[in-house]
Write a structure and sequence with these properties.
By secondary structure, the protein is of the alpha+beta class. 20% of the residues lie in helices and 26% in strands. The chain has nine helices and 29 strands. Strands 19, 22, 25, 26, 27, 28 and 29 form a seven-stranded mixed sheet that branches. A hairpin with a 4-residue loop joins strand 9 and strand 10. Helix 2 packs parallel to helix 3, helix 7 crosses helix 8 and helix 7 crosses helix 9. The longest helix is centred in the middle third of the chain and has 16 residues. Bound molecules: oxidized coenzyme A. Oxidized coenzyme A (CAO) binds next to strand 23 and strand 26. Its cofactor is (R)-lipoate. It comes from Chenggangzhangella methanolivorans. Keywords: Acyltransferase, Lipoyl, Repeat, Transferase. Pfam families: 2-oxoacid_dh, Biotin_lipoyl, E3_binding.
Amino acid sequence: MSNAIDIEVPDIGDFTDVPVIEIFVKPGDSVKAEDPLISLESEKATMDVPSPRTGVVKSVSIKVGDKVSAGVVIMQMEGEGAPAAAAEAPARTNLTAPPPSVSAPTGVAEVRVPDIGDFKDVPVIEIFVKPGDEVKAEDPLLALESEKATMDVPSPLSGKVQDIRIKVGDKVSEGAVILTLASGDGAGVTAATPAPAVSAAAAAAPAAPASAPGGAIDEKAFTLAYASPAVRGLAREKGVDLGKVTGSGKHGRITREDVEAFAQGGGKVGGAAAPAKAASGPAASGGGIGGVDLLPWPKVDFAKYGPVERKELSRIKKISGANLHRNWVVIPHVTNHEEADITDLEQFRVRMNKELEKSGVKLSLLPFMVKAAVSALKKFPEFNASLDGDSLVYKNYWHIGFAADTPNGLMVPVIKDADKKSIPEIGKEMNDLAKLAREGKIKPADMQGGTFSISSLGGLGGTYFTPIINAPEVAIMGVCKSFWKQHSADGKNWEARLTLPLSLSWDHRVIDGAAAARFNTHFAAVLADMRRVLF
Ligand code: CAO
């Protein structure tokens, strides 16, 4: 351990000055070749920089937030052995490849069990290929199952399976020959061929419940997802949370196509309450949606018809888009519209704002709506619940999310314990959270734990719309701009009343139309006379 070397950022394409968002190692850590050292995040991609060799980290020369380009020294390592072949590769993947375990006499490669950590004598539980099969690099060849993990051994290279040397039930360790593979047209396969990698993942991790739109990648679910390192690298690059992707490969393994489809908004969807078919249906040729085989997304060369400009979606748009898409496809939405008479409430709000002028809090309608929501949720508890398999989880807390329009896209901050807060307190917290969201400073914890959401377009306009439920919540209230409307209780006497258009979307698996109508009626009644919150 005397050959200390500088580890540099490898070729990262056209990217320069890319911020370091995470450092995975510290001085003294032992790392294997291809272990991720740091993560970089440009506007377009998240990239892991893998270790070019096995060794021990001596010192780290960068910190989170630093901006780096190819060639910048990020750390010093002491190590043995030659750098891995992949050291020159762009830092795009999370390959955990050990030294090549392929030998290639006369163009036929012996594929061996790669480094599988501390596991020894691990039973083969399934062999996915047979002699004569054509496989591509990264295709799973077989599955091993230890007491702790199910591991797929992917193919190190493309070729034709010749001779399978093991059978189901055999116990194998690192180095055992699995099969022989004829590479392409029989050309020689050299030891520099990409090495096999093991995805030591727990079998098909359940998809994470939907976080509020705008939430960060769930690293735990990402780690547990059943996917090869190359697919993980692709997912990082595309900003796809693997925990939310349902795999179409064997045993739910996530394939490159699944990630591509998810990134394009055409991915299959999972979720605790997703129908079985959505979770396990075959991949649709054109990007299956919820297990339904649909036509492929139209590919149009827009530039043929006029000048165009291409702009990558923001990270938040990608994340919230994937969540919204999943929710829209999985949840049978119904939207009931209602009108609330807020003539008195508006007078009260204006009066209260005058009184509150000195305190600096200015109340819009929204804090009143939060209180009305709590009242309705208490009266109709199934609206404050979540589906968990065949059970309904009723929550005895009332955390109300509100959609906020930010320069980067839609975010849903959550007012926790709204039942315990006064209307001015809620108003102030909303302003603070909306400001943080718009400045990109809001914490994930401020967007989690919601039990019901309100989406207000009241400051902008419109009459009615269909809000998409923010799973795992089961309902959402949409509100548009109030307007004056002639109203008559008896068809004879008419008067203008300030009317608030309400649109409640609800999950028909949990809620019935009659309950939704009752909820809306109560909600509107509370807004018409806020004294009802006391009841
Ligand atoms: N009817 C009439 N006027 C309304 C109203 C309504 N329903 N709701 C708000 N207003 C008024 C406010 O009183 C305020 O008036 P003044 O400027 O005279 O004080 C003005 O409209 C602007 O309100 P606001 O939008 O700043 O405040 P808010 O509390 O109503 O909303 C927030 C805060 C963060 C929810 C809002 O700014 C926002 O981001 N809305 C967009 C939410 C969204 O994108 N929803 C769609 C999600 S689905 O894609």
